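Appendix C reproduces, verbatim, an entry submitted by the partner laboratory led by Prof. M.T., so that reviewers can inspect both the input and the predicted structure.
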Amino acid sequence: MDDFATVTLAGSGLTRRPWVREAKREADYLQRFDAATLWLDAVWTGREVRLICPRLNNLRRAVTGAGFALDGRPVRARFRHYDRHCIVSLAAPAPGARVSVRIGDWQAEGPVSLPDPRFDGKNVLLTLSKNNDPGWIEDWARFHVHHHGAEAAVFVDNGSDYGPEVAEAALRRGGVEPLVLVTRRPFGPRGKKPFANAELFLQFAVLNAVRWRYLQGARAVLNCDVDELVMSPGGSVFDRAVHSRFGYVAFPGRWVYPAPEVQGQTCHGAHDHVDVPPKRCPDKWCMVPSGPLRGYEWRQHMLERLPLPKAFRQRGVWFYHCRAVTDGWKSPTRARGAAGTVPDPDLRAALEAAGLPMRSA
Protein backbone atom coordinates (compact mmCIF):
# COMPACT_ATOMS: atom_id res chain seq x y z
CA MET A 1 0.00 0.00 0.00
CA ASP A 2 1.29 3.45 -0.89
CA ASP A 3 1.97 6.09 1.77
CA PHE A 4 0.75 9.11 -0.21
CA ALA A 5 -2.85 10.31 -0.52
CA THR A 6 -2.87 9.63 -4.26
CA VAL A 7 -5.89 10.04 -6.53
CA THR A 8 -5.89 8.65 -10.07
CA LEU A 9 -8.06 9.18 -13.15
CA ALA A 10 -9.50 5.65 -12.94
CA GLY A 11 -13.05 5.58 -14.27
CA SER A 12 -12.93 9.10 -15.71
CA GLY A 13 -12.32 8.19 -19.34
CA LEU A 14 -9.42 10.66 -19.24
CA THR A 15 -5.77 9.86 -19.70
CA ARG A 16 -2.63 11.95 -19.68
CA ARG A 17 -0.78 11.84 -23.01
CA PRO A 18 2.91 12.56 -23.61
CA TRP A 19 3.87 15.86 -25.18
CA VAL A 20 7.24 14.49 -26.35
CA ARG A 21 6.79 13.45 -29.97
CA GLU A 22 7.10 9.78 -30.86
CA ALA A 23 10.41 10.16 -32.70
CA LYS A 24 12.05 11.35 -29.47
CA ARG A 25 10.75 8.51 -27.26
CA GLU A 26 12.57 5.34 -26.26
CA ALA A 27 10.85 2.06 -27.17
CA ASP A 28 9.24 1.56 -23.73
CA TYR A 29 8.19 5.20 -23.32
CA LEU A 30 4.44 4.62 -23.05
CA GLN A 31 4.88 1.71 -20.63
CA ARG A 32 6.85 3.93 -18.25
CA PHE A 33 4.80 7.10 -18.73
CA ASP A 34 2.42 8.16 -15.93
CA ALA A 35 -0.90 8.44 -17.74
CA ALA A 36 -3.18 8.01 -14.72
CA THR A 37 -2.05 9.97 -11.62
CA LEU A 38 -4.16 13.06 -10.99
CA TRP A 39 -2.43 14.06 -7.78
CA LEU A 40 0.31 12.29 -5.83
CA ASP A 41 -0.62 13.79 -2.46
CA ALA A 42 -2.97 16.32 -0.87
CA VAL A 43 -1.30 18.19 1.98
CA TRP A 44 -2.66 20.87 4.30
CA THR A 45 0.02 23.53 4.74
CA GLY A 46 -1.69 25.54 7.48
CA ARG A 47 -3.47 27.91 5.10
CA GLU A 48 -4.45 25.76 2.15
CA VAL A 49 -4.68 22.23 0.86
CA ARG A 50 -2.09 21.64 -1.84
CA LEU A 51 -2.62 18.98 -4.46
CA ILE A 52 0.75 17.98 -5.88
CA CYS A 53 0.13 16.74 -9.43
CA PRO A 54 2.33 15.47 -12.24
CA ARG A 55 2.43 17.89 -15.16
CA LEU A 56 -1.08 18.00 -16.61
CA ASN A 57 -0.17 17.98 -20.33
CA ASN A 58 -3.42 17.50 -22.32
CA LEU A 59 -5.45 17.35 -19.07
CA ARG A 60 -4.91 21.03 -18.36
CA ARG A 61 -8.24 22.28 -19.68
CA ALA A 62 -10.25 19.52 -18.00
CA VAL A 63 -8.57 19.88 -14.61
CA THR A 64 -8.55 23.69 -14.51
CA GLY A 65 -12.26 23.57 -15.30
CA ALA A 66 -13.01 20.94 -12.64
CA GLY A 67 -14.96 21.44 -9.43
CA PHE A 68 -13.08 20.91 -6.15
CA ALA A 69 -14.50 20.48 -2.66
CA LEU A 70 -13.24 19.96 0.88
CA ASP A 71 -15.51 17.74 2.98
CA GLY A 72 -18.27 18.39 0.45
CA ARG A 73 -17.90 22.19 0.54
CA PRO A 74 -17.01 23.68 -2.87
CA VAL A 75 -13.75 25.63 -2.89
CA ARG A 76 -12.04 27.72 -5.50
CA ALA A 77 -8.84 26.28 -6.97
CA ARG A 78 -5.71 28.19 -7.90
CA PHE A 79 -3.26 26.57 -10.35
CA ARG A 80 0.49 26.98 -10.70
CA HIS A 81 2.09 25.12 -13.59
CA TYR A 82 5.74 24.11 -13.47
CA ASP A 83 8.16 22.18 -15.67
CA ARG A 84 7.19 18.69 -14.53
CA HIS A 85 4.47 19.19 -11.91
CA CYS A 86 1.45 21.32 -11.09
CA ILE A 87 0.22 22.67 -7.75
CA VAL A 88 -3.52 23.06 -7.15
CA SER A 89 -4.14 25.26 -4.10
CA LEU A 90 -7.46 25.13 -2.23
CA ALA A 91 -7.96 27.79 0.46
CA ALA A 92 -8.47 26.03 3.80
CA PRO A 93 -8.02 27.78 7.19
CA ALA A 94 -8.84 24.35 8.68
CA PRO A 95 -7.49 21.17 7.09
CA GLY A 96 -10.59 19.14 6.24
CA ALA A 97 -10.52 15.37 6.05
CA ARG A 98 -11.37 14.70 2.38
CA VAL A 99 -10.76 16.50 -0.90
CA SER A 100 -12.83 15.72 -3.98
CA VAL A 101 -12.77 16.62 -7.66
CA ARG A 102 -15.55 16.53 -10.23
CA ILE A 103 -14.98 16.58 -14.00
CA GLY A 104 -18.25 16.24 -15.89
CA ASP A 105 -20.09 13.24 -14.42
CA TRP A 106 -16.97 11.73 -12.88
CA GLN A 107 -15.98 12.31 -9.29
CA ALA A 108 -13.08 11.08 -7.15
CA GLU A 109 -11.88 11.88 -3.66
CA GLY A 110 -9.07 11.14 -1.27
CA PRO A 111 -7.79 12.00 2.21
CA VAL A 112 -5.91 15.15 3.17
CA SER A 113 -2.48 14.60 4.70
CA LEU A 114 -1.62 16.71 7.74
CA PRO A 115 1.82 18.21 8.51
CA ASP A 116 3.99 15.88 10.58
CA PRO A 117 6.42 17.66 12.95
CA ARG A 118 8.70 14.72 13.77
CA PHE A 119 11.68 16.25 11.93
CA ASP A 120 11.32 19.79 13.25
CA GLY A 121 14.73 21.22 14.12
CA LYS A 122 16.65 18.30 12.59
CA ASN A 123 19.20 17.87 9.81
CA VAL A 124 17.41 15.65 7.29
CA LEU A 125 18.53 13.65 4.25
CA LEU A 126 15.98 13.36 1.44
CA THR A 127 16.01 10.94 -1.49
CA LEU A 128 13.93 8.85 -3.89
CA SER A 129 15.15 5.30 -4.42
CA LYS A 130 14.35 1.97 -6.06
CA ASN A 131 16.15 -1.33 -5.55
CA ASN A 132 19.29 0.21 -4.11
CA ASP A 133 21.32 -2.36 -2.20
CA PRO A 134 20.71 -2.08 1.59
CA GLY A 135 24.48 -1.86 2.12
CA TRP A 136 24.60 1.20 -0.10
CA ILE A 137 21.75 2.81 1.84
CA GLU A 138 23.50 2.15 5.14
CA ASP A 139 26.83 3.57 3.93
CA TRP A 140 25.14 6.62 2.39
CA ALA A 141 23.53 7.45 5.73
CA ARG A 142 26.71 6.73 7.72
CA PHE A 143 28.82 9.03 5.54
CA HIS A 144 26.48 11.98 6.01
CA VAL A 145 26.14 11.36 9.74
CA HIS A 146 29.91 11.40 10.16
CA HIS A 147 30.77 14.31 7.89
CA HIS A 148 27.68 16.52 8.34
CA GLY A 149 25.74 15.56 11.44
CA ALA A 150 22.71 14.18 9.57
CA GLU A 151 20.08 13.15 12.10
CA ALA A 152 17.19 11.78 10.04
CA ALA A 153 16.29 10.62 6.55
CA VAL A 154 13.09 10.74 4.53
CA PHE A 155 13.56 7.88 2.11
CA VAL A 156 10.92 7.50 -0.59
CA ASP A 157 10.89 4.00 -2.06
CA ASN A 158 9.51 3.68 -5.59
CA GLY A 159 8.37 0.05 -5.30
CA SER A 160 11.59 -1.87 -4.62
CA ASP A 161 11.69 -5.66 -4.78
CA TYR A 162 12.21 -5.67 -1.01
CA GLY A 163 9.85 -4.22 1.60
CA PRO A 164 10.26 -0.80 3.25
CA GLU A 165 11.44 -2.44 6.46
CA VAL A 166 14.69 -3.37 4.68
CA ALA A 167 15.53 0.24 3.85
CA GLU A 168 14.42 1.35 7.32
CA ALA A 169 16.79 -1.11 9.00
CA ALA A 170 19.66 -0.01 6.75
CA LEU A 171 19.11 3.64 7.61
CA ARG A 172 19.02 2.85 11.33
CA ARG A 173 22.29 0.97 11.03
CA GLY A 174 23.68 4.05 9.28
CA GLY A 175 22.80 6.17 12.30
CA VAL A 176 19.76 8.21 11.23
CA GLU A 177 16.13 8.29 12.31
CA PRO A 178 14.34 6.85 9.26
CA LEU A 179 11.03 7.51 7.59
CA VAL A 180 10.50 5.21 4.61
CA LEU A 181 7.55 6.12 2.39
CA VAL A 182 6.38 4.00 -0.52
CA THR A 183 4.89 5.09 -3.82
CA ARG A 184 4.48 2.77 -6.77
CA ARG A 185 3.48 5.46 -9.25
CA PRO A 186 5.58 5.34 -12.44
CA PHE A 187 8.92 7.10 -12.20
CA GLY A 188 8.63 8.11 -15.84
CA PRO A 189 10.18 7.32 -19.22
CA ARG A 190 13.52 8.23 -20.73
CA GLY A 191 13.38 10.25 -23.92
CA LYS A 192 16.01 10.87 -26.56
CA LYS A 193 18.09 14.03 -26.45
CA PRO A 194 17.16 16.78 -25.76
CA PHE A 195 14.11 15.20 -24.05
CA ALA A 196 15.90 12.64 -21.87
CA ASN A 197 14.17 13.76 -18.65
CA ALA A 198 11.25 15.79 -20.00
CA GLU A 199 8.46 13.61 -18.59
CA LEU A 200 10.03 12.20 -15.44
CA PHE A 201 7.20 13.55 -13.31
CA LEU A 202 7.46 11.55 -10.10
CA GLN A 203 10.60 12.98 -8.55
CA PHE A 204 9.46 16.59 -8.62
CA ALA A 205 6.06 15.64 -7.19
CA VAL A 206 7.67 13.55 -4.43
CA LEU A 207 10.09 16.30 -3.40
CA ASN A 208 7.34 18.86 -3.01
CA ALA A 209 4.84 16.53 -1.34
CA VAL A 210 7.39 15.42 1.26
CA ARG A 211 8.51 18.99 1.74
CA TRP A 212 5.09 20.24 2.82
CA ARG A 213 4.08 17.14 4.72
CA TYR A 214 7.22 16.43 6.75
CA LEU A 215 9.97 19.01 6.36
CA GLN A 216 8.67 22.54 6.87
CA GLY A 217 10.11 22.66 10.37
CA ALA A 218 13.38 20.87 9.60
CA ARG A 219 16.57 22.71 10.49
CA ALA A 220 17.92 21.97 7.00
CA VAL A 221 17.34 19.41 4.24
CA LEU A 222 20.05 17.84 2.08
CA ASN A 223 18.75 16.53 -1.25
CA CYS A 224 21.05 13.85 -2.66
CA ASP A 225 20.79 10.35 -4.09
CA VAL A 226 22.09 7.11 -2.61
CA ASP A 227 25.05 7.13 -5.02
CA GLU A 228 26.10 10.65 -3.97
CA LEU A 229 28.36 11.62 -1.07
CA VAL A 230 28.54 15.30 -0.13
CA MET A 231 31.83 16.89 0.94
CA SER A 232 32.20 20.15 2.85
CA PRO A 233 35.63 20.26 4.51
CA GLY A 234 34.94 23.69 6.04
CA GLY A 235 32.01 22.39 8.10
CA SER A 236 28.68 20.60 7.85
CA VAL A 237 26.68 21.38 4.72
CA PHE A 238 23.61 21.71 6.95
CA ASP A 239 25.38 24.43 8.95
CA ARG A 240 26.44 26.16 5.75
CA ALA A 241 22.81 26.31 4.61
CA VAL A 242 21.58 27.55 7.98
CA HIS A 243 24.19 30.31 8.15
CA SER A 244 23.94 31.37 4.49
CA ARG A 245 22.19 34.59 3.56
CA PHE A 246 19.33 32.87 1.76
CA GLY A 247 19.21 29.61 3.72
CA TYR A 248 20.23 27.71 0.59
CA VAL A 249 23.48 26.39 -0.87
CA ALA A 250 24.05 24.60 -4.17
CA PHE A 251 27.15 22.63 -5.11
CA PRO A 252 28.47 20.69 -8.13
CA GLY A 253 29.26 17.00 -8.43
CA ARG A 254 32.34 15.04 -9.50
CA TRP A 255 32.19 11.54 -10.96
CA VAL A 256 34.28 9.03 -9.00
CA TYR A 257 35.07 5.40 -9.81
CA PRO A 258 36.41 2.15 -8.42
CA ALA A 259 39.86 1.11 -9.61
CA PRO A 260 39.96 0.40 -13.37
CA GLU A 261 40.27 -3.37 -12.85
CA VAL A 262 37.02 -3.51 -10.84
CA GLN A 263 33.97 -4.57 -12.86
CA GLY A 264 30.30 -4.71 -11.84
CA GLN A 265 28.39 -3.18 -8.93
CA THR A 266 30.41 -2.21 -5.91
CA CYS A 267 30.13 -0.06 -2.81
CA HIS A 268 30.86 3.58 -2.05
CA GLY A 269 34.03 2.58 -0.22
CA ALA A 270 35.59 1.20 -3.41
CA HIS A 271 35.17 4.53 -5.22
CA ASP A 272 38.55 6.18 -4.69
CA HIS A 273 39.55 7.03 -8.29
CA VAL A 274 38.87 10.25 -10.24
CA ASP A 275 39.28 11.64 -13.74
CA VAL A 276 41.95 14.26 -14.39
CA PRO A 277 40.55 16.83 -14.78
CA PRO A 278 37.39 15.81 -12.86
CA LYS A 279 34.22 15.14 -14.85
CA ARG A 280 31.40 17.28 -13.52
CA CYS A 281 27.72 16.52 -12.98
CA PRO A 282 24.74 18.78 -12.19
CA ASP A 283 24.35 20.56 -8.85
CA LYS A 284 22.59 19.32 -5.74
CA TRP A 285 21.50 21.49 -2.83
CA CYS A 286 20.85 21.90 0.88
CA MET A 287 18.36 24.40 2.27
CA VAL A 288 16.34 25.64 5.22
CA PRO A 289 12.70 24.88 4.22
CA SER A 290 11.30 27.86 6.16
CA GLY A 291 14.03 30.24 4.97
CA PRO A 292 13.94 33.18 2.55
CA LEU A 293 13.55 30.92 -0.52
CA ARG A 294 10.56 28.97 0.86
CA GLY A 295 8.37 30.19 -2.01
CA TYR A 296 10.29 28.23 -4.65
CA GLU A 297 9.39 24.70 -5.71
CA TRP A 298 11.93 21.92 -5.21
CA ARG A 299 13.65 20.09 -8.08
CA GLN A 300 16.43 17.52 -7.92
CA HIS A 301 19.19 19.88 -9.12
CA MET A 302 17.93 23.36 -8.16
CA LEU A 303 14.92 25.34 -7.03
CA GLU A 304 12.36 25.87 -9.78
CA ARG A 305 12.65 29.28 -11.47
CA LEU A 306 15.32 30.48 -9.05
CA PRO A 307 17.09 33.45 -10.69
CA LEU A 308 20.84 33.07 -11.31
CA PRO A 309 21.06 29.58 -9.75
CA LYS A 310 24.86 29.38 -10.11
CA ALA A 311 25.17 32.42 -7.85
CA PHE A 312 24.10 30.19 -4.96
CA ARG A 313 26.99 27.74 -5.40
CA GLN A 314 28.97 27.45 -2.19
CA ARG A 315 32.75 27.41 -2.49
CA GLY A 316 34.41 24.41 -0.95
CA VAL A 317 31.36 22.14 -1.20
CA TRP A 318 30.86 19.36 -3.74
CA PHE A 319 29.58 15.82 -3.97
CA TYR A 320 31.17 12.60 -5.16
CA HIS A 321 28.92 10.76 -7.63
CA CYS A 322 29.80 7.07 -7.31
CA ARG A 323 29.66 5.61 -10.79
CA ALA A 324 29.29 1.90 -9.93
CA VAL A 325 26.80 2.31 -7.09
CA THR A 326 23.98 1.48 -9.49
CA ASP A 327 21.65 -1.30 -10.58
CA GLY A 328 22.13 -0.21 -14.19
CA TRP A 329 18.65 1.26 -14.73
CA LYS A 330 20.10 4.27 -16.55
CA SER A 331 23.06 2.64 -18.24
CA PRO A 332 24.61 -0.84 -17.92
CA THR A 333 28.04 0.62 -18.67
CA ARG A 334 28.08 2.55 -15.38
CA ALA A 335 28.96 -0.55 -13.34
CA ARG A 336 32.59 -0.79 -14.41
CA GLY A 337 35.89 0.88 -13.64
CA ALA A 338 37.13 3.64 -15.93
CA ALA A 339 40.48 3.52 -17.69
CA GLY A 340 42.75 6.49 -17.13
CA THR A 341 41.48 7.38 -13.68
CA VAL A 342 43.86 7.97 -10.77
CA PRO A 343 43.60 7.43 -7.00
CA ASP A 344 42.39 10.38 -4.93
CA PRO A 345 43.92 10.33 -1.42
CA ASP A 346 41.48 12.95 -0.08
CA LEU A 347 38.52 10.87 -1.23
CA ARG A 348 40.08 7.73 0.27
CA ALA A 349 40.56 9.53 3.58
CA ALA A 350 36.94 10.78 3.62
CA LEU A 351 35.63 7.27 2.99
CA GLU A 352 37.81 5.74 5.69
CA ALA A 353 36.95 8.46 8.21
CA ALA A 354 33.27 7.58 7.81
CA GLY A 355 33.98 3.88 8.16
CA LEU A 356 32.94 2.94 4.63
CA PRO A 357 34.56 -0.41 3.83
CA MET A 358 36.02 -1.45 0.48
CA ARG A 359 33.62 -4.36 0.10
CA SER A 360 31.45 -5.48 -2.81
CA ALA A 361 27.73 -4.68 -2.79
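The first strand starts at residue 7 and ends at 8. Additional entries are available on request from the coordinating office.
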